[in-house]
Amino acid sequence: MISVLAGVLSGALLSLSLPKPDLYPLAWIALIPWLYIVGSRPVLPRSLAASYAAGLVFFAGTFYWFSETMAIYGGLSIPLAVGVGALFVVAYALYFVLFGLGLHFAVIRFGARGLFFAAPLWVMVELLRAILFSGFPWMLSGYALVPYIGILQMVTWTGIYGLSFLATAVNSAIVYGLVNRSKVWLGAAAVMILIAMLLPVIGEKPPHDPIAVRLVQTNISLDQPWKKPDSDQLLAELGKLSTGDTTHPKLVVWPETPAPFYLTEDAEFRTRMQDIARKLNAYFLLGYIDALGEGPANSAGLLDPHGNQVGRYDKMHLVPFGEYVPFKHLLFFAESLTRQVGDFIPGNEYTVNSLDGHHVSTAICYESIFPDLIRRFVKRGSELLIVITNDGWFGESSAPYQHLRMGVVRAVENRRYMVRTANTGISAIIDPYGRIEAGTPIGVRTILDGTAHFRSDRTFYTEYGDVFAYANVLAVAVLFVWRKNARRTHRTI
Fold first, then answer.
1. Which residues, other chains included, contact 144 with Cβ-Cβ below 8 Å and sequence gap of 6+?
2. Which is catalytic among the residues 68, 126, 250, 315?
3. Residue of higher predicted confidence among 147 and 323
4. CA–centroid distance for 29 within its chain
5. How many domains does the chain have?
6. Does residue 245 share a domain with residue 180?
7. Is 256 in the active site?
């Protein structure tokens, strides 16, 4: 019972450390109850019970909006939506069990010192979550440390996994100090926390190559009727909003479309969009639906100041149960989730577009949670990251804030300004060091004018990707081999 309660407490604290409510200092202590149980060398069932309890509470608390989204916007009945959400929680909690199992064996083999394998084990499990079954690295634990702006800069070397490693290492150091009654390790953990809290941004470079941008937060309801005259009235209002200010942006960005906008096939819609570009004499990027092979594509089109389309990107990493249904023959009941967005076809090209002698890239919505995907745009020459999204699916839950937090880390990992336009919010301009220079509230139709900057240097992470994460996997593999060989030697003797 104590093991389960410890796991529940850790899962709750870890969930609370992330947006919202974003009680981020809890990240330094969240894992302590759980790790203390495992570090006390209990029998295996107790370690697994604590681990599964932590996983259930964490995923239920962090992704509570999952069922709400499927019920309100996905067309599932409330019981079915709750059931699918529960199935997600039950399945993903097994990642915590995998971590607990590995740490249990490390402690059995090395005693309390096995706790120091907690950080590489944690990184390995988070990397698996980012890769398996198309990947779902939403709200990895390291995102809790993002408000510590100085220590955040380590992600230019390690990616988000470095922050996860740091938080877990501090937790394990505290538990090691408690288990061994060592003031040295408790003091070391305190020093690490203090450094993270006080460390400033080091080596910051002043921005150059500015570009005036306008983000148009369209705030289109997912229930918006698309028959005339309602559609004409809405588009006229959005056109006036986009062009009606006295400032002169060089780049205007609309969000991912929640609507049947067809830039290629709908001449009337295309003319309206061209008029916006021409009136502002600006580049204009917008989300729309296009054809790709035998199906629709979730696309982003770039118009030049003359209204000519000069770029197109087709979303590559589609949202399971939102833009396609995986394992359709098994999960036939979930097809209603795609009733509003269709069954999309993924793109296959990391498109980088030219803009007045510079290069920009666009990621669409869900793609911004994948570190490796975003870095590939930058490695191909992107000097400015644009993210368009429709977070209207999430309502006013924690999800829009979680989504924004992940975008902040993508900007820092690659040392790029990020221009992020969301249909219902949060739209933002993020600098290469993770500061949100300007942002909008949720649920408001508005524009956000500001300045972004092009940048062409590359970080270690951009160049080499998740080397740090895979090094942790190697460390875990060495542990496993060491333990296996030790058993063989013991049996021989």
1. 14, 17, 18, 22, 24, 26, 27, 30, 163, 167
2. 315
3. 147
4. 23
5. 2
6. no
7. yes
* 204 has catalytic annotation: no
Residue 291, Ramachandran bin (φ over 0: left; ψ between -120 and 50: alpha; else beta) = beta
DSSP 450: E
Q: Which residue has the tokens 């306008």?
A: 214
CA 467/CA 487 separation, integer angstroms: 30
Q: Directed axis angle between helix 267-280 and helix 230-243, to 10°?
A: 20
Supply φ then ψ for residue 263, to 5 degrees.
-65, -35
Q: What is the pTM of this model?
A: 0.94
Task: Report the run of H or E that residue 387 belongs to, with start and end.
Answer: strand 384-389
Known catalytic residue: 367?
no
**Catalytic option among 365, 367, 383, 413:** 365
Range of the domain at 111: 2-202+466-492
- Which is more confidently placed, 334 or 78? 78
- Neighbouring C-beta atoms of residue 473, cutoff 10 Å: 17
- 256, 323, 367, 413: which is the annotated catalytic residue? 256
Whether 101 and 220 map to the same domain: the answer is no
Please say if the pLDDT value at position 80 is more than 80: yes
Q: Are residues 358 and 400 in the same domain?
A: yes
pLDDT tens track for 289-314:
998 878 899 999 999 999 999 999 99
| Domain shared by 297 and 354, yes or no | yes
